[in-house]
Amino acid sequence: MSRIIDNNAIVDLTVDDPLPFPDGITLYQVTKRLSVECVLHLSEAPEYWPVPTAVNGKTAYILDLRENTPKCVADFDASVDAFIKQECQDSWKGPTGSENRTFEVYLLGGVECRRSDLYCNGCLICTWADPSFLKDFIRWSSEDQSRDDLLTQLPLEARKREANSVIAQSISWYRSICNRTCTGVLKNGKLCGGSPTFRKFKKERSGSQWFIGCSRYLYSLAPKGERHIFENIPAEVRIDTLERLFGQEPLYNFSRPQDTPWIYADIKPLLEPCTNIVHPASAPKSKKCEFIHFGCGEHTFGHLVSQKCSAKLTIFIPIDKTDFRAIIIPEDAIPHSHPTFPARKVPYKAKELYTKCIKAVGTLGATTLRIDNAPSTLAILDGRLPQEVHGSLVDSRKRQRILQTERKIEYPNGSGLEGVWGEYMKERSKPPQDRYIHGFHTYDIDSHVIITLHPPLVPYIMAAQWIMADTTFKVVHGSTNEFKILIWDNALQQSDAEGAQAQGFGDMVLHRNLQMNFAVIKDSDDVLLRLWKTCIVHFDRGVQKLKGHAHPTVIEYLRSLPRLESRAAVTQYMNYSDHWDKVPNTTNPMEGSHATDNRKAGSVNNSLLEAILLAKQADQNTARTLSASQSSGVLVNSHNSLTKRYAKQGQRRSNTQAKKGHHIGC
Fold it and tell me: Where is this region: Disordered (predicted)?
C-alpha cells in the first residue's frame, strides 16, 4: 500500500516508521500499520462507496449505527459488515475476517476489530458486445457519471428494436419453449425426457398445420393417458422462421443479404453490438444474454462474461457484537471499471417504510396492490407511491417478498393446511363458545374437512325461517371448496351465511335420529324430499345439459316437474308442507351473498388459513352488528320488509327486460 507525495517519494503505509509527509498534511492513525488523510462520520450506510482519487488521499468512513440501529443488526440477524454489503448496490466478495486475528483500531477508541477485505465483483457483459465496450470506463463516485446512456437508454432502445421485429417475435417464442424437457410419464413409470420438436398435424386444426410436440412421442406406440409436450403455435409466430430455427438453419443469406431482402431488413436493427450490463447477483444461471443475436445469419445466444473490477473495500468491525460501529476504507486511486447499477437492492429504510405500510393494512388477505392503494399507505409515505420512495420498490417482486416476510412472521406455520392445523390447535385451548374452528378432519391423504362457526350466530340459525346451502370456490385459492349456509332472520330482516351440503345434511339428520312427524324415513333421500328445496335455476341448468341426449319433449317435461301440482301425492305434500312456499325457489339470495362476503373479506383467491381468518373477522362483525340491532331496535336496512323486497325484485326484473329491449304488457 503506497502513495506518491509532492516530492515524488513513494511512502509505504504499512510500516511503523515516521512518515515523511510535507507540512500541512495530517494523518489519522487507524491501526499500527495503517493511516488515512481524511476521516468522515456517517450514521447510515450509503448505497455506493465513493473511491478517493490520488489527489484526495486515503479516506476512512466511521459508520456509527448505535443511535439508529437497524432491527436486523440489533437482533443480531446481520452483522454490521453484512448490513453494509446489503445496503451497497455494488457486489462484493471476500473474507469476513477472523476473531482469532484482530487489530486494535484507534479511530474507534482502541477496540479490537476483525478485518474484512472485500473486492468488487464487477459486472457481466455479453460476448456479442463491442471489444472496446467499457474498456476505458472508470467510476470514482455515483455522482460523477450519468447512467442514462449505459444502463437505461441503451437497454430500452434494444428492447424497442426487438419489439418492432417480426422475426424477433418468433425467436422469443421459440426461446420460451426450446429448453423445455418433456415431463410425460411413460408406461414403465419413468419420465419421457424428450425435447420440443416441430411437427405437422394429420389434419389441419384451427387454420394451422403445425404444432410443437415431443421428440420421443410416437402416436402408434404411446398408450392413452400419456401427456407429452404439446403447444399450439400462436398466430403471430411465423411458421417459416420456426422451421428454420428448429432445423438450425440460417434465417438469411449471410454472404448475400439481398437474396432475402425483407428478412434482412427486419433483422438488420438487431445486428448492433450488444450493450447489456448485468449485475453479478442478477445474472441468470444459464449465463445467457436476454437479447437476440445472430452469427453468420443464424440465431444464436450471447453468453455473459465477467468484467473484472479492481476496486477494493477494507472494513474493520468490532469483535464486541453489541458495538454497532465500523471503519470503512475504500482503496484510493483504484476506481470501478463499470457504471453504477440501477438500485435493485431494497435498502433498510425503504424496507422499513413498506413494512410499516403493510402493518397498517394488515397481512390478512393483503396483496401488494391493496397495500399500494391503501389510504394509510399514502399517509405514511406523504402522498407518494411506494415506487416513488426508492427505485428498488418499482419491482413488484421486491414488494411481494417484503409482504411474504411479514406473513411468515405472523403465520410461522404457513397459510395452508399446516397453518390451519396450528390455528385449530391454538383454539382448542379456548372454551367452545370462544372458538371459531370447531373441527379439523382428515378422511384420506387428499381429503380434509374444516368446520368453522362463530358461536354468537348459532341462535339466529336455530330461529331461521329457512336455510339455504351453496358452494363457492372463489374465496380460497386452488381447488378448496367452501360450503356456505345462508339464513333469513324475520325479526331483523337480514341474511347471513355459513357452510353445508345437501347430501351431508341428509346424512346428518339420519345419523342424529331426530324425531320427525313424517312417514318412515329409509335413507337420506327421504329426508331431502321433505326438508330440502332445490334451487329452480340450478335445476334448470342441470336439465339443459341433457340437450342433445334426450328428445326436446322430454327436456320440457323434466323442466316442468318442479311445478307439477295436479298429482294427488304432490298436492297432498304441498298442502301439508306449507313451509315450501316460505322458502325461495332460487338460491339468488345465496348468490348475492357471495359478493357481499367477498366485499367483507376484502379479497378473493386467498390461502386457506387467510380465508378462514377473514371469514372469522367478517362473522364477528356480523354478530356485533346483529347484537347492536337487537339492543337498539334499529334495523340495518329498514327497507327490507317482504313487501319492499318483492317491489325491488319486480323493479329489477322490469329494468332487466327494458335493457334487453323486451316489452311487457298486454
Answer: 582-601, 644-666
Contact 470, 590 (CB under 8 A): yes
Nearest to 133 by CA among 437, 339, 390, 365: 339
Q: What is the pLDDT of residue 583?
A: 53
Closest CA to 411 of 427, 423, 428: 423
Q: What is the pLDDT of residues 444-466, one digit of tens each?
A: 767 888 888 888 877 777 776 66
Tens digit of each residue's pLDDT (9 = 90 or more) over 489-528:
555 444 444 434 556 666 667 777 666 665 666 676 676 6
- B/e letters for 347-386, b = 16+ CB within 10 Å, e = fewer, are bbebbebbbebbeebbbbbbbbebbbebeebeebbeeeeb
- How far is residue 377's CA from residue 356's CA, in Å, rounded to a whole number? 8
Which of 48, 72, 73 lies closest to 61 in space, CA to CA?
48
Classify residue 219 as exposed, middle or buried by CB count within 10 Å of its CB (0-12, 13-18, 19+): exposed
Residue 387: which residues within 8 A CB-CB, separation 6 or more?
Answer: 372, 393, 394
Q: Are residues 159 and 95 in the same domain?
A: no
Low-confidence ranges of the chain (pLDDT < 70): 1-25, 144-149, 219-226, 445, 464-508, 513-522, 524-525, 527-534, 538, 546, 548-550, 554, 557-558, 560-605, 626, 628-650, 653-654, 657-658, 660-666
DSSP-based three-state secondary structure for 507:
helix
Residue 507: count other Cβ atoms within 10 Å of its Cβ: 14
Is 603 in the same domain as 625? yes
Distances 487 to 5, 450, 492 between C-alpha atoms, Å: 90, 20, 12
Residues 452 and 316 in one domain: no
Residue 552 gets which letter from DSSP? Answer: H
Q: What are phi and psi of 181, to 5 degrees?
A: -120, 135
Residue with cell 387428499: 446
C-alpha–C-alpha distance, residues 497 and 597, integer Å: 8
Maximum separation of any 2 CA atoms in the chain, in Å: 122
The pLDDT of residue 630? 63
Q: Based on the structure, what is the number of domains in the chain?
A: 4
**What pLDDT, in 10s, does the model give residues 364-416?**
888 898 999 999 999 999 999 999 999 899 999 999 999 999 999 988 888 88
**Grid coordinates of 663:** 316489452
CB 82 within 8 A of CB 324: no
Q: Are residues 112 and 164 in the same domain?
A: no
Shared domain check, 248 and 236:
yes
Considering the domain architecture, whether residues 453 and 520 belong to the same structural domain is answered as: yes
Residue with cell 376484502: 602
Spatial strand order in the sheet of 208-214? 196-205, 208-214, 230-232
Q: Are 505 and 481 in contact (CB under 8 A)?
A: no
Classify residue 508 by its DSSP letter. Answer: H
d(CA 496, CA 593): 8
Burial degree of 593 (CB within 10 A; 0-12, 13-18, 19+): buried
Residue numbers of the domain that contains 80: 2-122+309-330
Per DSSP (E only), the strands in 453-498 are 467-472, 482-489, 494-497
Phi first, then psi, for residue 211 (nearest 5°) are -155, 170
Q: Give alpha helix (H) positions in 477-636.
A: 502-512, 524-531, 536-544, 552-560, 568-576, 588-601, 608-632
Same domain, 515 and 622: yes
Q: Which pLDDT belongs to residue 498?
A: 43
- Contact of 482 with 498, CB cutoff 8 Å: no
Cell, residue 277: 450490463
Rounded distance, CA 150 to CA 92, Å? 21
